[in-house]
Structure formats: structure tokens, C-alpha cells
Write a structure and sequence with these properties.
The chain is α+β, with helices and mostly antiparallel strands and about 100 residues long. It has one helix at about 5-20, and strands spanning about 30-35, 40-45, 45-50, 60-75, 75-85, 90-95. It has a 6-stranded mixed beta sheet, with no helix packed on it.
């Protein structure tokens, strides 16, 4: 594939993915982060995720704050805008609903 084809494929896939979650980027474009391999939990305004379910709630997990309350859910996946509280990094993280605890 040439560069033009790759860019078109990338932007078309990103547009379709965001549309599936009924999410529109605005002045700040959030990078998409594939978090489907992790077990996760959502409480109040924060998210915890880990590779192993036994690690949830132990402090051996990754955490992030929900940015501006952005949580978008489909029947199979949940996308959450997560503020990592590090260097202004905010990601549009996509989790598998079957791994929610």
C-alpha cells in the first residue's frame, strides 16, 4: 500500500469506530487506546484496569480519571476518555464489556 491508501484506511477506520460509539472529536483529538485485553472496573469518576482480575483493588493496577464524564457504551464495548494525570495525556480507551468487574 502506498501512503495515501494507508492514510485513507486509517482515517476511515477511526471515523467508523468513533461513530460506533456516537462520539465526535472536537478541538482536542484524543488518541484511541485498545484496552480490550484488560479486566476493568468503573467507580465514581475513575477507572481501574489490570491484566489479572486478582490485581483489581490491590493497588497493583493502572488507574485514570474519567475526563469530562465521557463514557460511551455499546452492547459489547465501553469507550472512556481517561485522563492519566501525567503530562496532559488523555486517551479514548476502549474496553471489552465482558471483562468489566
Amino acid at each position: 500500500m502506498d501512503i495515501n491508501q494507508l492514510i485513507s484506511a486509517y482515517t476511515n477506520a477511526e471515523t467508523a469506530l468513533l461513530k460506533a460509539f456516537d462520539f465526535e472529536q472536537d478541538w482536542r483529538v484524543l488518541p484511541i487506546d485498545d484496552m480490550r485485553k484488560y479486566v476493568w472496573t468503573l467507580s465514581d469518576h475513575s477507572v481501574e484496569w489490570a491484566e489479572y482480575e486478582d490485581d483489581l483493588g490491590t493497588g497493583k493496577v493502572y488507574t485514570g480519571d474519567v475526563w469530562h464524564g465521557i463514557i460511551k457504551t455499546t452492547s459489547t464495548h465501553t469507550a472512556i476518555a481517561i485522563d492519566t494525570q501525567c503530562d496532559g495525556n488523555i486517551f479514548f480507551c476502549i474496553f471489552d464489556n465482558s471483562k468489566r468487574r
